[in-house]
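Handout for the seminar on molecular recognition.
Each group receives one record of this type.
Step one: identify the two inputs.
Step two: read the structure output and locate the region that could contact MV4.
Step three: write two sentences on what you found, then compare them with the reference statements printed after the record.
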Amino acid sequence: MFRKILIANRGEIALRILCACKELGIRTVAVYSEADRNSLPVRFADEAICIGPPRSAESYLNIPHVISAAEIANVDAIHPGYGFLSENANFAEVCEASHITFIGPTPEAIRLMGEKDKARQEMAKAGVPIIPGSPGVIPDEESARSIAAEIGYPVIIKAAEGGGGRGMRIVRSKDELGAAFQTARSEAEQAFGGPNVYIEKLIERPRHIEFQVLGDRHGNVMHLGERECSIQRSHQKVLEESPSPVIDTKTRNRVGEQVVKALKKIGYSSAGTVEFLREESGKLYFIEMNARIQVEHPVTEMVTGVDLVKSQIRMASGEKLEDVVGPVEFRGHAIECRINAEDPETFTPSAGRITAFRVPGGPGIRVDTAAYADAVIPPYYDSLIAKLIAHGHGRQEAIARMLGALDGFVVEGVKTTIPLHKRILVDPDFVAGNFDTRFLEQLSVLEAK
Ligand code: MV4
């Protein structure tokens, strides 16, 4: 097992990883930007090293700075958390070259999943259903036309190195195709690694459902069921739950098995998430894979009892999946509400000082946060203040516990998404499990009336 781990992240996930290390008896090194000098990970870690100014590019994203800190502190491993360097294949490579274990998949697996068109092809080859579309990247406008005509409009053009909703263009008819193809390419060129784009048939009003997986470094992979992530706004998830209200045991087992088989073939290790779109017919299609621990991992932890972060660490050190995770059973229902510091009118981040902070507790309630009274939410990073997770025997109990916990959650000094969550949780369609990725758009339209 590792002696000492560097946590290359900030906020709640840095604290989450720190706690997992403590449980495992591993020493911890926090790295921080000048904006995070007074943060809890810095206070609770065994050592803390400043890696630069507030801007991410000069601190949390600066590979030489992070590696220098790791070498000065003489760590055996680095946990990247989510965001920042977590899916940077070059960083994973630099770690290995410096004889530091990167707690995540191999650089090859990260690179494959970062190229969405290739990931899509690999998953298809391994038997996971994909959305009808181009066999790979589209070389020119003419090929785009013939593929779109073949699969039928509407279609969606996606940047091969985009993902998470960035660099997508919907095309409803052949008249729009030429312009859309050219714009998509130049946007992809500017914003991402390159100009490559691919085409898929557009799925209208999909649900976003994702499978959690864990793999060890010996070729063993398992799935831990799915999460329903359709409650989103501008490609930012707002509320997640497990299980999905529309996935039955048979579907979970079937799709879970498909995913496991594909990831064994690819040689995937560590925690990962396989994203699907579910069309109204109930059919699930692979869209992309996230090669990291995700923000919403706690809902899976609550229904499976598996500590995903501890599992990542143990398997990165060489332990076998079967020794780390026993047979899993799915118990009850869990919901996570992301409490963001944001203006409820403009949805823009609301940075500033938290003047009062009180977290709820009680049966089935978990709060993952690095916030405290008098803490400052800096404007440089994402605006997540806390994740509130409620577990219950069933979905109804989870919703009721969440509503009670939201009532007992006090955050003063910054505006938060707490009122938004209260509205979602009493909405009749949400309560009935009847929603898709456009739910929040419609909720705000209805409320404006
Ligand atoms: C799609 C789609 C419809 N059809 N692909 C957005 C995030 C990125 N991971 C994939 N996304 C989508 N891909 C096809 N072929 C609709 C979306 C989409 C979406 C997906 C999941 C959750 C929220 C979304 C909001 C808008 C669009």
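Reference statements: Residues 262 and 419 are 41 Å apart (CA to CA). The first helix runs from residue 11 to 23.
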